[in-house]
Specification:
Rossmann fold, 26% strand, 34% helix, 360 residues, 2 domains, alpha/beta, Gfo/Idh/MocA-like_OxRdtase_N, nucleotide binding, 11 helices, Dihydrodipicolinate Reductase, domain 2, six-stranded parallel beta sheet
Length: 360
Amino acid sequence: MTNKPVRFGILGAAKIARKVCRAIADAPNATLSAIGSRSVEKASKFASDNGLSAEVKIYGSYEAVVDDPEIDAVYVPLPTSLHLRWAVVAAKKKKHLLLEKPVALNVAEFDEIAAACEGNGVQFMDGTMWMHHPRTPKITEFLSDADQFGQLKMVNSIYTYAADSEFIANDIRIKPDLDGLGALGDVGWYCIRSILFAADFQLPTTVVALPNPVLNESGVILSCGSSLFWDDGKVATFHCSFLSNLTMDTTVIGTNGTLNLNDLVIPYEEKETYFFTSSNSRFNELATGWKPVPSKHVVPTELSQEACMVGEFSRLVKEIKEKGSKPEKKWPSISRKTQLVIDAVKASLDRGSKLVEVGR
């Protein structure tokens, strides 16, 4: 492939776009070519605040970005309620699509997005950044080891943070007309993705939401949880919240081993991460300690997980542009499965914590 970078445009000036701007700059096969917002003033302020090059085009509309013939791909960090419209528009304009999570308000909307991408031959990927961290394949190695880990039995995932009063009053993630899924769609997305990842993306059969979710006065979820069940006996639980101290714990338990992560979504340190594993664990003779003690696995990285994500997405785009390859289907498939579980949990919440079957 040539050294020509994939040219990105960004739709919107959301806070998370700052991180992805830096990632596009750091990725060796990508470059930022345009930023578009609802006004030239907002786009210009974003460019100034983030030190963007004078060569980056400033547009006062999203249409201008997707209409630009020099843009190869767009990153879309807009409110979830706008994803369907702008993702489909971008795909029809032959722009490869990196879409923030949650990908849609429900799986029916996502299926429209996926169909537009497939019909126009463009690559789709969601913005679940930890999936691209070099630590993730190391975790997969352990979970795939029949001797060290064995058969998956249980997953527990927690992602919470204590939002301030300004967030609770005004953030788009608690507005029913913008991001009606609230904490379930935001931090809950990561919990569900971690569970599916541990289960090798085998969908659960049923879910039941935990009782007494916390909703704001508009009915948007601020805190909730759920249990997931598979026909072969696997179980999982998760809790997600805007109302508790920052926690990102994931525990995966097999017949022979256990994996523990304390910083899955955003690592404690950008350049070095770790995880803990234990295998064939027992107490010592007097039950005063463990034998063997858990092992710590350190994983260094030169690039941030965001830059790794942009780099992998750009690699796929370049394969399509320069070699005529087909878009990689695993990414929309993974997104769809995550959305299916989101939908089922939401349905269970709406029905007073009734057991709900997961769609297919």
